[in-house]
Structures are given as structure tokens and as C-alpha cells.
Specification:
The chain is α+β, with helices and mostly antiparallel strands and 481 residues long. 36% of the residues lie in helices and 16% in strands. Among the domains are: 176 residues, Cyclophilin-like (Cyclophilin, Beta Barrel), CATH 2.40.100; 39 residues; 87 residues, RRM (RNA recognition motif) domain (Alpha-Beta Plaits, 2-Layer Sandwich), CATH 3.30.70. It catalyses: [protein]-peptidylproline (omega=180) = [protein]-peptidylproline (omega=0).
């Protein structure tokens, strides 16, 4: 008895040991007739060891025997049929993958090398792959790429099973279990993780090498564009340079935009020589924009190696997207007013960069106030930013500035008046002190009549009074400062 197993990588012809293992071979043959194995994955491949299949769930934990379909759930498993003469001595040995002793269902494995002594007397050996009828298929299965759990990254499935010869009669229930059409694709019960389908074929096997190289370059270019877009170097990964712009280099430094307009006179919309942003000198290359793509292509064909101002120019299609990048960052509102590739207006030059500074700050919403002017007297100069109200008109701002000036004038007047008042108070205090000193001197003379005593007392009192007055004067000066 033999069974043909058609897999996604080739065919296998299995010869069965029906005499030694009648129960096991009966189970296998009837499951093949039921198309039970159609679509089952080789869910585990151990290189140079075994390849395991027969589980419709694709996980290695499922599968039912034929006896369950005939007799119910209690007959899901059947007993082992281990014989000493049936060994795992040759490549292609077929045996039952049981969940334990006497727990055989539908799963089976095929050895991938000779003398797998580890499995002797542990599992029921019920068949072997015929020589010349599938060994190359076993080689392909053995060389498949697998993950850490042994499952191939590309699915290997059993497509169909054909019973070539069966000596046993079919049970009556089998007719109801056989589907009218042979199942194709995944089993209904499969719950395994999706991988590359068994129909997947690498591109190098289906595509011309030149076309394949072009596809690889295109994908690399797209990947690089996505990276540049993610870091903000280009506006979008799908951006393309304009097809109506020419890049002209090797120009003479004396060549100006007007010269290029005259030379490239075929529907030219802009001709711009690029200059150094510091010195304003020509960098000897330019961008010329045409109205139509056809005019640009004609100019590219006719103007190559032309002599301009004693220089042989080189012309090529532009690869710059600076205009698109500027439109992306600044909006397209004034895009038509700008030049093709310059930062500002078409007459932009590096030496004109400072001319727009006054216009740029003309309508600013803040004024600079000099602290030295406001608060007076200090050599330190610092500035405060005073923001006007949003939407205020120029007249309102002028009124605010006039009001500030009036406040500053009032502050200065108040300080001046306070200074004069302090001077008057100091003069009055000096006059009172002198009067008190004169009265005390006269009282001393009237009280004692001793000129020498009073003279000495007057001098000491005068020194104390002068000392107090000096201290008061120094404090007044420090306070004034």
C-alpha cells in the first residue's frame, strides 16, 4: 500500500507497513481519503532531524484520529504499534507523533537523515519514503529557513493526498465524511500565525535581472526620500524637481541675468544667476525657467557647449527643489512673485540684504526705551521692550509716546523741585543751629561770670556742634547721591 503526498515543495510517495501496523495504517489511509491532511502545515522542521505535520490547526497541539469520526470523542487516540524491527535507520522514515504513550491521533513526522537513534522504540513507525520518489523534496524541506521554534518562515503545506492502493474496505460512515471537492488552501481549523504563503516566489526567480535591479534602486531612492522628508531636508518624499527648468554652469562671472534672457529667448519666464550671499559676486551658475517642458528640452539639446562670454557652458536639467521647498515652508501666496531659486525677489542680490532692514522694523509692535533717559543720572544703559496693544493705529502709538514723554518731564520736574526743597531745609537747619549756639554762649556768661570757664566750654560745645553738623552734611550728601 502506498500514498502520494503532494506538498508545496514537491511530491512524496510513502510505502506503508500494513502487516506490522494495521491499526496505524488504517487510520492514515482513511484520513487521506477524507482529505483530512489537505492544507496542513509542516509546522515544525528540525534541520537534519525530523519534519512534523498532520495538524489542521498548524500549532502542533491539535489533530484527531479516524476512530474519533467513527466512534466518538472517546476514541480520539489509539494505541502504539512499536516493533523492534521497524527502526529510524533510513532517511524518510514515517512515524506517528504521539502526545504520549498510546496517544496517537493524526500527526506524523518524517526523518531527514539516517540513523535517528534517539527515536528508536518510542514512536510507531508505519512507513518510509520510497527511494527516488521524494528524497529531493525532503532535501528542500530540510534546507528551509525556520524561526526559533522550528516553523518555516515560508509555509510548506500538504496540497493533496492520493491513496494508490488500499486493501481494506471503507466503513459506511466514510462516504459522508469525504468532501465532494478536494479542499484547497488553508484548513478551516488553522489558527497558526500567518507567514509567507507557499505560493510566494522570490522576485529574482520571476523578474528579469535588469528589471529587478531597477526596482531595487527605485525602492532605495524612495527610502532615502522618506528619510530626508522625516528630518526636514525636503518637503515631501514624493517631491520631484520641475521639468521646465535648466541648470547652466561654467558661466563667465560677467554674465548677467539680462544676458541669459537674451540668449535663452525661447519663452523664458525667469533667468537667474546665483550670487554669493556675502559679496554678491556671481557663482558662475544659473537656473533658467521656461514656459513649457518642450522648450526646456529643446534648449537643453541646442545650448550644450555653447560659447557665452568666452566660456563653454554646460547645460543639464535641474535637480533642485528649492522653489517647491520655499512654497512648502512659506506658503504659495507669493510664490508667483518670487524668482525661480533665489531667496527673495527676482532682482535679489547679496549686497541688497541690508536695504530692507528699516522696512522690516517699520511697523514693529514695540519701542526701545532708554533707562538712562527715563531715570536719569546713571551711566548704565539698558533698554526695556514696551509692547503696544495689538491692532493699535499709528496715531494711537504716537499718542502713547507723547504721553510717555509728558510723564518723563513731570518726573524730572518733581525731582528738581525735591532737590530745591532739600537745599532750603538744610539752610534753615543751619540757621537754627547757629542761633542755638549763640543763645547758649550768652546764657553761660550770665550764669557764672567766669570768662575762662565759659570760653573753654564754648569751644568744646562748638567743636561738638561742628562735628554733628559735619556728620549731618555727609549724610545729606550721601542721600542726595
Amino acid at each position: 500500500m502506498s500514498v502520494l503526498i503532494v506538498t508545496s515543495v514537491g511530491d512524496l510517495v510513502v510505502d506503508l507497513h500494513t502487516d506490522q501496523c494495521p491499526r496505524t495504517t488504517y487510520n492514515f489511509l482513511k484520513l487521506c481519503k477524507m482529505r483530512y491532511y489537505n492544507g496542513c502545515l509542516f509546522h515544525k522542521v528540525a534541520k537534519d532531524f525530523v519534519a512534523q505535520t498532520g495538524d489542521p490547526t498548524g500549532t502542533g497541539t491539535g489533530g484527531d484520529s479516524m476512530y474519533k469520526f467513527l466512534h466518538g470523542d472517546q476514541a480520539r487516540f489509539f494505541d502504539d504499534e512499536i516493533h523492534p524491527e521497524l527502526r529510524h535507520s533510513k532517511i524518510g522514515t514515517v512515524a506517528m507523533a504521539s502526545a504520549g504513550k498510546n496517544r496517537n491521533a493524526s500527526q506524523f513526522y518524517i526523518t531527514l537523515r539516517d540513523d535517528v537513534e534517539y527515536l528508536h522504540d518510542k514512536h510507531t513507525v508505519f512507513g518510509i519514503v520510497a527511494e527516488g520518489e521524494g528524497l529531493d523534496t525532503l532535501t528542500k524541506i530540510n534546507e528551509s529557513y525556520v524561526d526559533g521554534e522550528g516553523r518555516p518562515f515560508k509555509d510548506i503545506r500538504i496540497k493533496h493526498t492520493y491513496v494508490l492502493y488500499d486493501p481494506d474496505d471503507d466503513p459506511a460512515q466514510l462516504a459522508e465524511l469525504v468532501p465532494p471537492n478536494s479542499p484547497i488552501g488553508k484548513p478551516i481549523d488553522e489558527i497558526a500565525e500567518e507567514r509567507l504563503e507557499d505560493t510566494w516566489v522570490p522576485l529574482d526567480e520571476t523578474v528579469d535581472p535588469v528589471q529587478l535591479e531597477e526596482m531595487i534602486r527605485s525602492k532605495e531612492a524612495h527610502t532615502n526620500a522618506v528619510i530626508l522628508a522625516s528630518i526636514g531636508d525636503i518637503p515631501d518624499a514624493k517631491v520631484k524637481p520641475p521639468d521646465n527648468v535648466l541648470f547652466v554652469c561654467q558661466l563667465n562671472p560677467v554674465t548677467q541675468d539680462e544676458d541669459l534672457y537674451t540668449i535663452f529667448s525661447r519663452t523664458v519666464t525667469s533667468a537667474e544667476t546665483i550670487c554669493d550671499y556675502k559679496t554678491g559676486d556671481s557663482l558662475c551658475y544659473a537656473f533658467i525657467e521656461f514656459e513649457a517642458k518642450e522648450a526646456c528640452e529643446r534648449a537643453h539639446r541646442d545650448m550644450q557647449n555653447c560659447l557665452i562670454d568666452a566660456r563653454r557652458i554646460h547645460v543639464d536639467f535641474s535637480q533642485s527643489v528649492s522653489k517647491l521647498w520655499r512654497q512648502f515652508r512659506q506658503g504659495t501666496r507669493n510664490a508667483n512673485k518670487d524668482g525661480c531659486f533665489k531667496r527673495h525677489a527676482p532682482d535679489y542680490r547679496a549686497r541688497d540684504l541690508d536695504k530692507g532692514a528699516e522696512k522690516k522694523n517699520k511697523n514693529r509692535d514695540y519701542v526701545l526705551r532708554d533707562e538712562n533717559t527715563q531715570r536719569g543720572g546713571s551711566n548704565r544703559r539698558s533698554y526695556d521692550l514696551v509692547f503696544d496693544e495689538d491692532g493699535a493705529s499709528a496715531d494711537n502709538r504716537q499718542d502713547c509716546r507723547n504721553a510717555d514723554r509728558r510723564k518723563i518731564q513731570k518726573l524730572d520736574d518733581w525731582r528738581s523741585e525735591a532737590s530745591h526743597k532739600r537745599d532750603r531745609d538744610r539752610t534753615n537747619r543751619d540757621r537754627n543751629n547757629r542761633e542755638k549756639l549763640h543763645i547758649s554762649e550768652e546764657g553761660g556768661r550770665r550764669h557764672d561770670g567766669h570768662i575762662s570757664y565759659h570760653g573753654s566750654s564754648d569751644r568744646s560745645y562748638s567743636r561738638r556742634n561742628n562735628s554733628d553738623y559735619g556728620k549731618h552734611q555727609s549724610k545729606s550728601r550721601r542721600r542726595d547721591d
